[in-house]
Amino acid sequence: MPVHQLPGKIILQHPEGPSLEILLYGATIVSWKSPSVENKELKERLFLSSKAILDGTKAIRGGIPIVFPCFGAPQHPEHLKLAQHGFARTSLWTFRKILLDNEAGVSVQLTLDPTPEIAAVYDRPFQLTYVVTLAQHQLSTDLHVANPSESATLQFQSLLHTYIAAPAQELTITPLQNVKYYDKMESITEAQQTAKVETRAKVDVRRPTDSVYEDAPLDYTVSWPGGTVNIRAREFKDVVVWNPGEGGKKIADMEDGGWNNYVCVEPGYVRGYVNLAPGQTWIGQQVITIKA
Ligand code: TA6
Asked: Which residues does substrate bind (predicted)?
């Protein structure tokens, strides 16, 4: 069986070797093993801190946490009771069904609907559906946000907080040159950040980095000696590049030196809000492809 349901998690097994582990907690993908293009050797493609707390009491430090309906500290009047990055990454999702199961790929669907815990901090109707598809060298993650309201617009932010396993001191991210960005290293509050324009042809994270690129190109390449990963996005118009460097020592669930082993490249809609009309559905998509 290529899809295994275990207590609290789902394992996807592709016939050619790749595998994926999704926790129901946050629908967080915590492992993606995919073969190298050259010699088929299976490699872990996502960073997961060895200190990540996996018992459902804290958002997971690594993998692909889902950010919804607010990015960072809540600012929208409807979000003020929410924790940083919202509730999707800390709620228990439901595994619904297998959508595809053949040599082309293995695909599953999970959903999150309002629960009493969510309703206590967020009273808007919504439905989230997450479609995760594993192919030989590719992982697609589609987040569908539906607005079941008959009269009210749903305003939200969303992002996939993807921790790519890669040597932070050696990697570059392209093409972000000339894209406007906001530097969260300068100030965490949006109001105090001034827009800058990226001047570098190749962005790196050799210094602590927390940059929110607005209206970004939707197609990014992360390269390092011996590795290339492509990340494509749809509807996630912005992208965040984050690596705290030594500042990671202050993050309780970050393993020692963990910041050397990843970069977060996070497609999202985080500058402004998606305005989703009643009865409509919005789909944000990320497709990660191993190129080398
Ligand atoms: O996406 C980047 C960011 O918002 C950073 O500012 C940093 O705080 C990071 O996310 C991690 O947030 P977390 O709530 O998971 O500790």
From this structure: 61, 84, 89
Show the domain range for 33.
3-290
Regarding the beta carbon of 33 and ligand 1, being less than 6 Å apart is answered no
Catalytically active residues, by annotation = 161, 266
CATH code at position 76: 2.70.98.10
pTM as predicted:
0.98
Of residues 91, 88, 135, 100, the one with CA closest to residue 284 = 88
Strands (E) in 78-218, as ranges, are 94-102, 105-112, 127-134, 138-146, 154-160, 163-165, 172-174, 180-183, 195-197, 209-213
Determine the Cα–Cα distance for residues 36 and 44; give it in Å rounded to an integer.
10
CB neighbour list of residue 197: distance below 8 Å, 6 or more residues apart: 178, 179, 180, 181
- Ligand 1 pocket, residue 180 CB under 6 Å: no
Number of other residues whose CB lies within 10 A of the CB of residue 140: 17
Out of 32-41, 206-215, 254-263, pick the least confident: 32-41
Closest atom of ligand 1 to CA, residue 244: 7
ipTM exceeding 0.95, yes/no: yes
pLDDT of residue 188: 79
Instruction: For residue 240, give the ligand 1 atom closest to its CA.
Output: 1
State the total domains in the chain: 1
